[in-house]
Design goal:
Blueprint: H1 3-8, H2 12-25, H3 29-44, E1 50-55, H4 62-70, E2 74-80, H5 83-95, E3 102-106, E4 120-124, H6 132-144, E5 152-158, H7 166-178, H8 183-196, H9 203-212, E6 219-224, E7 227-233, H10 237-240
Parallel strand pairs: 1-2, 1-4, 2-3, 4-5
Antiparallel strand pairs: 5-7, 6-7
Helix pairs in contact: 3-4, 7-8
Keywords: Methyltransferase, Transferase
Protein name: SAM-dependent methyltransferase
GO biological process, one term: methylation
Length: about 240
């Protein structure tokens, strides 16, 4: 499955149910976004100006909504390749009164000008949808090349191979059952998650991908079954020998 095919998974039907379904699939969905905003604000300081690249902003644009509460002068560039998901994000940003602070780009990070430099970036719920190691590396490299030296990246998503953690997978199914899913529906959802995503094999694998893209070792700050969130700073040009 290509990156384009991964984006096409988020068709109008899936986009429409994204917010509700995500809050079941990820226990602590809102807390993860709120803590991500807190980590960015703690790193950058919420009082000054900053320009944040939000990769995979489609859906509820929760990264933007949460960060705006702490940082009234921050601007955002939201990137997503799925039109249905982006339309939901645009509507939510407008509803929150944040449209004047947000630029939207329907497409990919690679489409942005190569000389753009952002103060920070977020990549939440995206990396495990990239098929294979090379696609993951390309995405992280594209983000890194558009960050200022020392700029933080918030990376959040599934970070274990599903088959390697059968207890977590079973608990994930129980999470759905707790929300009223039948046994048949749980089996269908487990089958879908096993076929529909390709997470890094471990936290060490995440750290290696980040290092390859020019980031410092990550600081992990949130965990929920397979899901984890971390912050990593882009290594300065001098440190990279560029």
């Amino acid at each position: 499955m290509s990156s384009t095919a991964a984006a096409q998974k988020f068709d109008p039907a899936r986009a429409g149910e994204y917010q509700a379904q995500s809050r079941i699939a990820l226990a602590g969905y809102d807390a993860c976004h709120e803590l991500s905003a807190c980590m960015l604000s703690a790193t950058l300081g919420g009082e000054g100006a900053a320009h944040v690249l939000v990769v995979g902003a489609g859906g509820g644009a929760q990264e933007i909504v949460a960060a705006s509460r702490l940082a009234p002068e921050w601007r955002f560039t939201a990137v997503d390749p799925s039109r249905p998901m982006m339309e939901i994000a645009v509507a939510e940003v407008a509803r929150q009164g944040l449209a004047a602070r947000t630029d939207f780009h329907l497409g990919y990070v690679d489409d942005l000008p190569a000389d753009r430099r952002f103060s920070a970036a977020t990549l939440i719920g995206v990396l495990h949808h990239q098929p294979g190691q090379e696609a993951k590396r390309q995405l992280l490299n594209a983000i890194a090349s558009r960050l200022a030296p020392g700029a933080p990246l918030i990376l959040a998503g599934n970070r274990y191979a599903y088959a390697s953690q059968p207890l977590l997978l079973a608990a994930w199914g129980e999470r759905w059952r707790m929300q009223g899913a039948t046994a048949e529906e749980v089996r269908a959802r487990l089958g879908k998650i096993l076929e529909g995503a390709d997470p890094p094999a471990s936290e060490d694998a995440v750290a290696e991908l980040l290092a390859d893209a020019g980031f410092e070792p990550p600081t992990w700050f949130f965990s929920s079954l397979f899901w984890g969130a971390c912050l990593a700073r882009r290594i300065g040009d001098d440190a990279q020998g560029a």
